[in-house]
Design a protein that fits this description.
CATH architecture of the largest domain: Alpha-Beta Horseshoe
Main location: cytoplasm
Keywords: 4Fe-4S, Cytoplasm, Iron, Iron-sulfur, Metal-binding, S-adenosyl-L-methionine, Transferase, tRNA processing
Mean pLDDT: 92
CATH class of the largest domain: Alpha Beta
Shape: globular
Subcellular location: Cytoplasm
Enzyme class: transferase
Oligomer: single chain
Structural class: alpha/beta
CATH topology of the largest domain: pyruvate-formate lyase- activating enzyme
CATH superfamily of the largest domain: tm_1862 like domain
Largest sheet: 7 strands, mixed
Number of strands: 22
Helix content: 25-40%
Strand content: 15-25%
Low-confidence stretches: 1-11
Binding site for [4Fe-4S] cluster 2: 179, 183, 186
Radius of gyration: 22 Å
């Protein structure tokens, strides 16, 4: 899986939005897993807002409870199951309550949820959110409702997402859906379907709308943004069947990013997530050309061992990955990187593990997302490989990776000390209400004292005078 993950240890995140006075029903919507799920929840909220639902932060108030689920790691699934059990008890008190699951678990566990465990009334896959009004009518008649059909066309390009529970400063704009990369550990191609790209004009219009509504930073989002390819619509795999004119006028990710940078020149731009084998030098050149594109790349590698990369079907080597990193550093002085690492994949030896540690030292990541491997049903690894690394070995290796990343993060943070940085104010510090928090271009979090006249959404010059492992400490210049 190529996405940057929200903290899965949380129970999930529930959202509330501005209410329509005429709406009479309440929706409780909770999201788990990756940024794509949170983006999808905004689409769902928009669809249901037009169907008479206002959102609530309290499940006991709701007429409809929806969990947008994740199948990437076992812990996420266990958390969702516990949550559904709680709602099953709530349903005994409110017989008319409708409970449903959306997203990746919906597609993968549809039969268990509906027929075997009777935990939900409604199961909706990632490409079927437009069908929610019809499915809800089915449940009103006392019937279970399901639609998990995957699409080669659906991008929800014409739906204006309702921005849920955000800060009014930063937002995500989805540019692709699905994934064609058959990494052996990953379930996403089976739960989210084929890769397809969204019309660039709808992307630009959404970015302009966000700017006009006061947003100051957007993240272009996809399972694999680097493989963005617009040639008129449809699955990317069908590009070779497109007409000559379609192929000649197709727009790739670097071109899209340049179009957005020009369309909203004062808007900060980020993107997530990249796949090393699809990332191109052209992207780095565009990043260097435009000041409003942040100098940060989330570039998952998963392992530093060529043997493991081949078993994972990552389609790149260690040397190719490092060459990409070095090219970026040459074109973008000061660029920062973050990583995803899977520890203890099938057959991983101590030598493979040491190669991961050495890769981390060579790249010097700012931070990372590190997990021990958990076998996911339905993946090629689950079908063809043995999950043969003992749990204690996985945990020891994971601890070593986390400890090393801690050292690297502190070193990288120290490198930002003693200089001025442009920081976008995103909110109040969690630890001190008299301080702001924000990020610099390299995605490093900075906290600094509030001054009179400063407000949310301002970009201010901050001198960084100190750091912790993961945070910069500064003062306004």
């Amino acid at each position: 899986m190529q996405e940057k993950y929200i903290d899965e240890t949380k129970q999930g995140e529930a959202f509330a939005i501005a209410e329509k006075p005429q709406n009479s029903k309440k929706l409780f919507l909770e999201s788990y897993g990756c940024q794509m799920n949170f983006s999808d929840s905004e689409i769902v909220a928009s669809i249901l807002n037009e169907q008479g639902y206002n959102t609530t932060l309290f499940p006991e108030e709701a007429d409809l409870i929806l969990l947008n689920t994740c199948s990437i790691r076992e812990k996420a699934e266990q958390t969702v199951r516990m949550r559904l059990s709680q709602f099953k008890n709530l349903k005994k008190e409110k017989p008319n309550l409708t409970v449903g699951v959306l997203g990746c678990m919906a597609e993968r566990l549809k039969t268990k949820f509906l027929e075997e465990e009777h935990l939900v009334d409604l199961v909706v896959g990632p490409d079927a959110y437009r069908d929610l009004p019809n499915l809800l009518k089915e449940t009103e008649g006392g019937r279970d409702a399901i639609n998990v059909i995957l699409s080669k066309e659906e991008t929800y390009a014409d739906i204006s997402p309702v921005r849920l529970g955000g800060n009014g400063v930063t937002a995500v704009v989805t540019i692709t859906r699905g994934c064609d990369n058959m990494c052996t550990f990953c379930v996403v191609p089976f739960t989210r379907g084929r890769e397809r790209s969204r019309d660039p004009h709808s992307i630009i219009e959404e970015c302009k709308e966000l700017w006009n509504n006061g947003y100051k930073e957007i993240t272009l989002l996809g399972q694999n943004v680097d493989s963005y390819l617009w040639f008129g619509g449809g699955a990317k795999k069908d590009f070779k069947k497109a007409s000559e004119i379609q192929q000649l006028t197709a727009i790739n990710f670097a071109q899209l990013m340049e179009m957005v940078a020009i369309a909203v020149p004062k808007m900060r731009l980020r993107f997530s997530t990249s796949n090393p084998h699809d990332m191109s030098t052209e992207v780095f050149k565009v990043m260097a050309k435009y000041d409003n594109i942040c100098k940060y790349v989330h570039l998952p590698v998963q392992s530093g061992s060529d043997r493991m990369l081949e078993k994972m079907n990552r389609q790149h080597t260690r040397a190719e990955y490092l060459a990409l990193i070095n090219t970026a550093k040459e074109l973008l002085p000061g660029v920062s990187f973050s990583q995803d690492m899977i520890i203890g994949f099938c057959g991983e030896t101590e030598e493979d593990h040491q190669m991961t540690l050495s890769l981390m030292r060579e790249v010097e990541y700012d931070y990372g997302y590190m997990f021990s491997y958990s076998e996911r049903p339905g993946t090629p690894a689950e079908k063809k490989m043995e999950d043969d690394i003992p749990a204690d070995v996985k945990q020891r290796r994971l601890a070593e990776v986390i400890a090393l990343q801690g050292e690297l993060s502190r070193k990288r943070m120290q490198g930002y000390v003693g200089r001025n940085h442009e920081i976008l104010i995103e909110g109040t510090s969690r630890k001190n209400e008299n301080q702001w928090k924000g990020r610099n271009s390299q995605n490093a979090v900075c906290v600094f004292d509030k001054l009179e006249g400063q407000k949310l959404g301002d970009i201010v010059t901050v001198f960084v005078h100190g750091n912790t492992q993961g945070t910069l400490l500064g003062r306004t210049v």
